[in-house]
Design goal:
This protein is α+β, with helices and mostly antiparallel strands. The protein has one domain (about 10-125, about 170-205): Roll (Pnp Oxidase, Chain A). The chain has five helices and ten strands. It has helices spanning about 25-35, 80-90, 115-125, 130-135, 145-160, and strands at about 45-50, 55-65, 65-70, 70-75, 90-100, 105-115, 170-175, 180-185, 190-195, 205.
């Protein structure tokens, strides 16, 4: 079969204005709970897109670790490629794709680091191996497998069972200015409702053509 012939007709759900929540946080929470109930694999997996100083984009999958009215939180190495790009261009886009539900959520907004205490608390909740790995990995830099494993072994011996959070590792929060909810529909006439943050901090909803 040709790649051009790969297609699927979406017909499971609909997203109409009178069914949408008043705020995007409510709508996201509703859809996230439904993704959990549907046992979507890794429902908190999201594509994070950033750009460098020349506007050249890069994207990767990261994991959502919390969300509330302030925004959407993920954790990483601040010295990684994404961290360096966010330092120069503190704006990002997030994308969730929940294929079993035929849904996407697109989020855009400015990014800032979370408070150190929040990063500390999350770091301490991670498995010990992951905490050691945050010390051992100079993320996005060239390395051999042998050197990486040797660094992990060295830090495990030096830091013991209770390592503190590395200063180069912590959380970011994307504060949404725009959130679009996409629901697949038959004949590619998809539902697209976008929430935009107005100057008075209220949300405006409009439908976009598919």
């Amino acid at each position: 079969m040709s790649i051009a012939d790969l297609r699927q007709n979406y017909a499971k759900h609909q997203l109409l204005e009178h069914l949408a929540a008043a705020t995007p946080l409510e709508q996201f929470s509703r859809w996230f709970d439904e993704a959990l109930a549907a046992q979507v694999p890794e429902p908190n997996a999201m594509t994070l897109a950033t750009a460098d100083a020349q506007g050249r984009p890069s994207a990767r999958i990261v994991l959502l670790k919390g969300f509330d009215a302030r925004g959407f939180v993920f954790y990483t190495n601040y010295d990684s490629r994404k961290g360096r790009e966010l330092a120069g261009q503190p704006w990002a886009s997030l994308l969730f794709f929940w294929q079993p539900l035929e849904r996407q959520v697109r989020i855009e907004g400015p990014v800032e680091k979370v408070e150190p205490a929040e990063s500390d608390a999350y770091y301490q909740s991670r498995p010990l191996g992951s905490r050691i790995g945050a010390w051992a990995s100079a993320q996005s830099r060239p390395v051999t497998r042998e050197a990486l494993e040797a660094a992990a072994a060295r830090y495990a011996q030096e830091l013991g069972e209770s390592p503190v959070r590395p200063p180069h590792w912590g959380g970011y929060r994307v504060a949404p200015h725009t959130i679009e909810f996409w629901q697949g529909r038959p004949s590619r006439l998809h539902d697209r409702l976008v929430y935009r943050l107005a100057q008075d901090d209220t949300w405006r909803i409009e439908r976009l053509s598919p």
